[in-house]
Structures are given as C-alpha cells and as structure tokens.
C-alpha cells in the first residue's frame, strides 16, 4: 500500500475557470506551480497513491503574494467534504489557530461532526508560538484523542512567516512534553534536515515526510544519505505536497536519488531503504485505520462545496 501523507485540499470542486487560475513561482525552484485545482486534478495527480492524507490550514488571509484563494469559514468543511467523497482513499485532517478563541471547541467539532482524523498546523504561517500555552493545550487535546499532528517545518519565502516557529528543534521539546503525541515533521525541516534526523531518531512517535525535497538534488541526496547513516530512514514517510508535486513524481525522485553521485566514490542511499519509504504503512505509524468504502458519516456525506468556487489555501513553502 502506498500512502501519501502530505496533500492539500483542492481549491475547486469542478474545473477551475480560466479567470480563477493562479500560479506561484516560489514554491519550487524549477517551475511555477498552479495553485488552483479541482477534485479531478487531485485524483489525476494522486493516482499512484492508494491512500492520501489531505488538509487545509487555518489562515485568516491568503498567503502574501501567492494569489491562493482562501475562504476562512470553510477551512475544515471543504476538507471534510472532499475526504467524504472517497473515504476509502482519503483521510482528512483539521486545522485551527490554537490562539483563536474557541479553537479547542472547533477542533472537537471537526473530530466529532466532520470526522476529521488528524491536525495540520503551520506555526510560522499562522504566526503562533509552537511552544506557547495555547499550542500546548491543542497538543494535549490531540494526544488525548489520538489525533496525529502534521507540522510545517523549515524554510519559507513568505516574508512575514517567522522561521524560528518552524525550526525542527522545537519538535524535540513538544515530543518531550507530549510523548504519546504522533507527529509528522513536513519536508524533513528543510534546510535543517540534520536537526530533523536528530529529532526523529530520538522520539518513537515522531516522523518526517520527504515532500518538497526532490527539486534540490544535492540536498535531497545528502539528507537521505544522512538519514541512512544515522539509522533513521525507517522514520521517513512518503509525501508529495500536492499541488506542488505528484505522488508518482516523488516516488520517481526517491528511486533516482543516487543519480547525482553516479561516477563518484560517494556512498549511495540503499535501494531497499528507498523502497521501504515508498511502501511504508504510514497509517499504522500514525495510529490511523484505513477507512472502508461507504464509511463516511451522514454529517459529511451529503455536503458539497459550491460548484467551481474557491476553497481554501495550499500553504506550504519550499
């Protein structure tokens, strides 16, 4: 089974009208990324995955300069509706701003009424202290209910997103305080992959995903080789960061990670470790069960977002 742990809820249910098409040229260094996308676009670009985890992020406004449409009132509803449309292949995560009034109540509503099964946070984008009391209250709630949290980790071209809020070493402190909380550190915390490796090898329930890494061939090889040397590749999970990349593109890049050192004496990332990442049972690692077809609850199953209308933001930066 192939599980893609890092995808973003499509912005539109139906085909994106030409007037609403948006692209952004700073998500990855090799090309611009179309940031408005449909449910059909998602299915096409996630075809290589058997199951995917999908989420929005609770932002009050669009990310500066990206042109990504955002509807704060539908951050979680649009994810729940999308996940419910194909419950055997999609698992939805909720997002809240821990510092907002009623954030725990909203998280509980998403868990109970919307059936969302994990949490997505981007402290740098949401501009909250990941070690502050409000954030810790949310971690405590998630740990109590067995919901994993996927954190944006690492750099960002968004000028007003504080980098210190997304540094991997903050995850060490969170894992120490909440040892049963299952955590995914997105993007291996690039460019601080070494710090991420130190954290994931130390804590049993802390993992990292490999999304947003393959477009920088040298640092991709280096961090994968370091993870192998430190015995930490078993803590790495497959993630595409749709719409930034596709599942198939990410798998192909993993299998080609050693190409940059061909013809040199530099060590290779073992092929068996690469294949293990591609086929890892991330759901088991995160304490999630694969839903059966038709499992969607009544609360989600009859809902649908506005046809062709913008949904919520894709927020990750590379």
Automatic annotation (TrEMBL):
GO terms for molecular function: carboxy-lyase activity; hydrolase activity. Residues 70-288 form the Amidohydrolase-related domain. The keyword Cell inner membrane does not apply. Residues 1-20, 289-318 are annotated as: Disordered. Keywords: Lyase. The keyword Cell inner membrane does not apply. Pfam families: Amidohydro_2 (PF04909). This is Amidohydrolase-related domain-containing protein.
